[in-house]
Design a protein that fits this description.
This protein has one domain: Rossmann fold (3-Layer(aba) Sandwich). Helices cover 38% and strands 16% of the residues. It contains 4 helices and 4 strands. The longest helix is centred in the middle third of the chain and has 18 residues.
């Protein structure tokens, strides 16, 4: 039997986290292949419905990565993301989804090593938790 490979959807800020992911890829730094990246203009534009849809579509975990507080291209978007994350993690818990399956972190464009570290930690954490058990049919799956 093969080892469980978690499916992760990562919502990344265009100005920082996405650039870090791109730099990690360009430098051929090893990071999990099961992480699917969704590029957002700002982590503050993260719609909580997208997180819920990612879980419903088969994701075992979701990451939201943005600029460091105080360094947002849109001034306060990452503070908005942090407030939404707090509410969203409580809501997911009410739905029976462990809080550890949702991660919010700050990764600047110059931190490709941190991007690799955060994604590897997320995947390892999900391996320990195991696959997300879903009740009922899902409309579509995460590839």
């Amino acid at each position: 039997m093969s080892e469980f490979q978690p499916k992760v959807v990562a919502f990344l800020c265009n100005w920082c986290s996405y650039s870090a992911a791109d730099a990690a890829g360009s430098a051929r730094k090893t990071h999990p292949a099961g992480v699917k990246v969704v590029r957002l203009m700002c982590s503050g534009r993260m719609d909580p419905q997208l997180v819920v849809q990612a879980f419903a579509a088969g994701a075992d975990g979701v990451m939201i990565l943005g600029c460091h507080p105080g360094d947002c291209h849109y001034r306060e978007g990452n503070y908005k993301a942090r407030r939404r994350y707090a509410l969203l993690s409580r809501m997911l818990e009410q739905l029976g989804i462990d809080r550890r399956r949702l991660v919010l972190d700050w990764v600047s464009a110059a931190e490709s090593d941190k991007f690799v570290e955060v994604t590897n930690e997320m995947v390892e954490s999900l391996r320990l938790l195991g696959p997300l058990v879903r009740v009922g049919p899902c409309e579509q799956e995460v590839a």
